[in-house]
Amino acid sequence: MSVEAAVRAFLDRLRRRVRLPAKKTELPPADDTLRAVEPSLDLAARFVASAEAAGCRVHRVGTADWTAQVARIVTEHRIASVLVQVEPGTALTPERAADLTRVLADRGVSMMTETSDAVLFDVGAAVTGVLSATAETGTLVCASGAASARGATLIPPVHIAVVDQSQLVADLYDTFAWLRRRDELPANVNLITGPSKTADIEGVLVTGMHGPGVVHVILLEPS
Amino acid sequence: MSRTNDTRRRLAAAVADRRVVAAVHLATWRKVDARAESFARLPHAEELRERAAQIRQHTLDHLPAYLEQFVGQVERRGGHVHFAADAAAACRIVCELATQRGLTLAVKSKSMTTEEIHLNAALEAAGVRVVETDLGEFIVQIDRDRPSHIITPIIHKDRRQVAEAMARELGCPYTEDPAELTRIARAHLRDIFRRCDLGITGVNFGVAETGTLCLVTNEGNGRMTVSRPRVHVALLGIEKIIPRLADLPVFLKMLARSSTGQPMGSYTTLVTGPRRPDDRDGPAELHVVLLDNGRSDILAGPMPEVLRCVRCGACLNACPAYRNVGGHAYHSVYPGPIGSLLSPLLYGAEHDALPRVSSLCGACGLVCPVKIDIPALLVRLRALTRDRQPALKRWMLRGWGWVMRRPWVYRLGQKTLRALLRDDGRGWARGGPGPLREWLCERDLPRPPARSFRRLWEEGLGNER
Amino acid sequence: MDVALFVTCLTDTFYPRVGEAVVRVLRHFGCRVHFPKRQTCCGQPAYNSGFHPEAAALIRRLVDVFHDAECIVTPSASCATMVRRHGPALLTDEAAAEMARQVAGRVHEFATFLRDRLHVDIGALVRFDKPVTFHYPCHAREVYTVDDLRRWLGNSEMVRTPARPDLCCGFGGLFAVEYPELSGAMLGDKLDELMRTGARLVVCNEAACTLQMAGGARRRGLPLQFKHLAEVLAESLGLMEPTP
Fold first, then answer.
1. How far apart (Å, rounded) are the C-alpha atoms in residues B325 and C186?
2. How far is B437 from chain C (nearest CA, A)?
3. Which of chain A's residues have a Cβ under 8 Å away from the Cβ of B71?
């Protein structure tokens, strides 16, 4: 039996076996009435609180100062090489990437744009944009695509995410409504909430198990 | 009788293992408190539980239709769907996928479903090396142990045991520092992730509307496993479907909160098909293996709502019985309250005793994010397996019922009980026959006073005003 | 008001003083108390063990014994829950089930009866001359809350609330004798919890839990004393001599 036929045969068997119960449970509406955060709230403040609670380090900076902030982070972690990933639909525009590259290169940091394994497993940090961010939980939404590798926000030990305040949505409900509105879901979407963590050994929290141990969020304030 | 006795011996041995019991106490209380605090801060928490229960129940009621939709959507996006009737079939499918493509190094993200079918042994036998990548599961694997909790596999181990296993198996310097142990494991597994060619994951939710696989992890091993290898095989129980993408927030708001108290897991990964032609990286092939392995029997049986379970582990953490024995004592992949339902329903009579390993305190039902009334179902399962109970127990309960239906015999029984319990001189029993002996091995028993209430009533209390 | 007392088999046999306290407190608040003598057990042990035909027979009996009572009061929330929730569901014969539902609607747990029907402010009446803590029985959940129980102990500084008042005592009916080692370990956790409060007097409104906890405390040499709220009330109101 072909793979497809085996699946169909199973579904037929299941249909014959399982009868609808007398008391039917309706599918509740796909609404957002149980939301935790109203869009009218100060989303930036809520985002900062939630992201920090999840273990991110958030920096609220103006568009004029953000490269200096990234430079400070790079110095703090003594990072020698940085991957910069420009992606449409994010706040990391080609112009901004060029600004950052200039600033960091001036300080002797090696700047990468390629996402080969040799780069991903070697760089000290990746700077990326995000597609959206959720105030309720401090979540960053990143996706795979032609311009963005799955590994970029995952493999380097430090992730620096550039987020424009206008990209904030209030609630997880809004995040999924936003995803739903896209014509086609990317093959790989990640909702990133804080650094990689584990508490498997005696419940002691340790960051950086597989993914980045440090996540910096550069939250760009409207100029 | 022997099944109850075996279970009792096993549980008694587990209770006596103070090291494990202390570790499990510490971990479960911490999670119970974190969960409670986290839910207290979640607006509409009760309504979310109610809604999650409705969505899951509705999906189960209409599972064939939603599965069909899910299968169609996965295939439309270029994924392949396989069906496995049982554990052997699932193992065969995964092994064939690996061997036909010459894949030799598999990484696995934590998955209870793969534990359930003992996939690792099958793959190793087929010549595929399998490496567990969740830190807890990795330690379980190198220490040739078994997970004892569905979320926290090494809840039963302390840092010394972890340190010993890592030093012995990896040849690294001995350290008991969790941060250092984590760093060593990271380095070891990074090397594996660079070379692996097959990624195996479970799935938290399969979205029928889009064919999306939702995986939640904290460590990022799930992301690695679905990004690095060229083939991704996802194994999911047929019950893990939800209808719409818009249903996900309802579950995501509660899943990590129920497990660890976090508002969100670190990584929620949504996989919709294999890599697209212009994607920079990612698996070229995506295979979804739908596993039945007894689930359709549960669905067609008397308590299908058990399948609402989202494997958050909250009922294990809340359970005072689990807390005092740990997961191994249950002798099943699924321990704790939900396991005491799933194990006998999935695997049959050898687990008959499990529904009875509960004081029915109800702590599990209170924390279940999909509102499975676990204590009520435990009682129903006890009723369904009543005829397989030891003859002595059946006769004693029948005899007890006979007595209770006859007030004068009941009264005689009160006197007999008093007579059977020898006085220790202070009004407490020194010893007694039958079940009283079992009572007395853990606690004292007062002798019933010479005057029962009904005697007090007759001797004057009834006539007072 | 006429009240039929459903004393429960455990209270009848092991804790007659609790039954007496219930009677005296009810009379104090003007009730005429009746005691239908044919009553025995609600069938809960059989029900929880999955022996449902046996439990159904006892529920049917209990419905018959109490069918003409206006108000049925019991000192046990778990027995009240057995009659109110599980009882009618056990009876397959529709007429019997309807009868059981009618009786079920007239069953009240002692403290909630005082509060809801007699409008007694229990917390204002109880007196403690030494530190006191309390145990919330798992099977009281459908009858009263932890906060209710805490309120009934009043505002006295003597009340020490445990960190986890609703931790199970580990009794669980036949579970206690089928898996005594595990039941005993759970009991140990419970007693630790109570001891940590520093109080040595424990209010517990469930005879089964008291049997387990008092027996466990004595076996472990812990100086804990257990009382039902009815006893506390009867003593506070001067209706009964305090126990030493």
1. 10
2. 8
3. 7, 11
- Between CA B339 and CA B328 the distance in angstroms is 12
Q: What is the pLDDT of residues B301-359, one digit of tens each?
A: 999 999 999 999 999 999 999 999 999 999 999 999 999 999 999 998 899 999 999 99
**Distance between CA atoms of A57 and A161, rounded to whole angstroms?**
10
In tens, the pLDDT along C58-71 reads 999 999 999 999 99
Is C148 an 8 Å CB contact of chain B?
A: no
Strands A139-143, A132-134: pairing kind? antiparallel
Q: Which two tokens stand for residue A1?
A: 């039996």
Q: pLDDT at position B1, please?
A: 44
Question: Which residue is associated with the tokens 């920090």?
Answer: A52
DSSP E strands, chain A: 57-62, 81-85, 110-112, 125-129, 132-134, 139-143, 158-164, 168-169, 188-192, 197-198, 206-207, 214-221
Helix (H, G, I), strand (E, B) or coil at A13: helix
Reading the block at residue B363, the tokens are 């702590």
Using a pLDDT cut of 70, give the percent of chain C over it: 100
- Supply the DSSP string of B113-125, one letter for each residue: HHHHTTHHHHHHH
Q: Nearest CA to C79 among C32, C149, C142?
A: C142
Between the alpha carbon of residue B259 and those of residues A31, B54, B255, B309, B317, the distances in Å are: 25, 20, 6, 13, 8
CA C137 to CA C109: how far, in whole Å? Answer: 13
Return d(Cα B56, Cα B49) in angstroms, integer: 11
Confidence at residue B232, expressed as pLDDT on a 0 to 100 scale: 98
The answer to whether B218 and B265 have CB atoms below 8 angstroms apart is: yes
B351/B332 Cα distance (integer angstroms): 8
Q: Determine contact: B446 vs chain A, CB below 8 A.
A: no
What tokens were used for A102?
């200039």
CB atoms within 10 A of CB B433: 8
The set of chains that have 3 or more CB pairs under 8 A with B is A, C
Whole-number Cα distances in Å, B22 to B145, B186, C44? 19, 28, 33
Give the span between the Cα atoms of A82 and A66, in whole angstroms. 16
C221 Cα to chain B: minimum distance (Å): 11
For C78-164, where are the E strands, in sequence order? 107-109, 132-135
Strands A125-129 and A81-85: parallel
Which chain B residues contact residue C27 at CB under 8 A? Answer: 464-465
Q: What is the ipTM of this complex?
A: 0.97
